[in-house]
Specification:
Blueprint (H helix, E strand, L loop, with lengths): L1 E6 L2 E6 L22 E7 L4 H14 L5 E7 L8 H13 L6 E12 L2 H11 L6 E6 L7 H6 L2 E4 L7 H19 L7
Parallel strand pairs: 3-4, 3-6, 5-6, 5-7
Antiparallel strand pairs: 1-2
Helix pairs in contact: 1-5, 3-5
Length: 190
C-alpha cells in the first residue's frame, strides 16, 4: 500500500512501512543526502534530568550526520489564565523562531502515521526542497496553535497514543538518529 502526502507544493510518496525489512526499502538508503541542520522546538516545562540525559545522548550521536539544535520554549510564556490564550502565546513564540526558508514538521496526534523508513525518506526529501533548515515542532500541553499549523509543511505523529512533550522529544531524537543510520546504510536500525 502506498501513501502520498502533499503539502505546500511538495509531494511525498511512501510505500507501506510493513514491506520494509531493512533500510534497503528507503529510496535514499546508502545514497548521498543533503543534510539540513535540524532544530527541535519543544514547548513545555523544565525537563527531567533523565529525559535531558537521553536527549543529549541522541543529539550527540546525530551531530555525526548534521547540525542539531534543541530549543526549549517555556509553556504558557505570558501566564495566561485560559487554555486558548496559552496556546496562542505558545504559538506566537514558536512561529517567531521559524524562518521563511525553514521546512517545518509539526508533531501532532492527528498527523500522518509514518514508520522509520518513511521518516528517513522525509529527511532525504526535505533536503531536496530548497529549505535551509528542518524544524520539528512539539507542542505544549494543549497542542499547537493556528499559526504553526498553517505554517507547517507536513504534520506527522510519532504514535497513535498521545505522548507528553518530554516523551515525544525522546522518541523524536531517537527516530532522527535511526533515520540517519537508515540513510547511511548502517546497522543500528535493524
Amino acid at each position: 500500500m502506498a501513501m502520498a502526502i502533499s503539502s505546500c507544493g511538495v509531494s511525498f510518496q511512501w510505500t507501506n512501512s510493513s514491506s520494509y525489512s531493512s533500510g534497503k526499502g528507503c529510496k535514499y538508503a546508502g545514497q548521498a543526502v543533503r543534510a539540513l541542520p535540524i532544530r527541535i522546538l519543544t514547548v513545555g516545562k523544565k525537563r527531567s534530568p533523565g529525559v535531558q540525559l537521553l536527549v543529549d545522548e541522541y543529539i550527540g550521536k546525530l551531530k555525526s550526520y548534521c547540525d542539531v539544535y534543541d530549543v526549549q520554549i517555556r509553556s504558557n510564556p505570558k501566564n495566561a489564565r485560559n487554555a486558548r490564550a496559552q496556546v496562542e502565546d505558545e504559538d506566537t513564540a514558536v512561529v517567531n523562531l521559524i524562518r521563511s526558508d525553514d521546512w517545518v514538521v509539526l508533531l501532532d496526534e492527528r498527523g500522518a502515521d509514518i514508520g522509520s523508513e518513511q521518516m528517513a525518506e522525509l529527511l532525504g526529501d526535505a533536503g531536496n526542497t530548497g529549505a535551509s533548515r528542518l524544524s520539528f515542532c512539539i507542542g505544549g500541553p494543549y497542542g499547537h496553535g493556528k499559526q504553526i499549523r498553517e505554517r507547517a509543511n507536513i504534520s506527522i505523529k510519532l504514535s497513535s497514543m498521545v505522548l507528553n512533550h518530554q516523551i515525544a522529544l525522546v522518541v523524536l531524537v531517537e527516530q532522527l538518529y535511526r533515520s540517519w543510520t537508515i540513510l547511511k546504510g548502517q546497522n543500528y536500525h535493524r
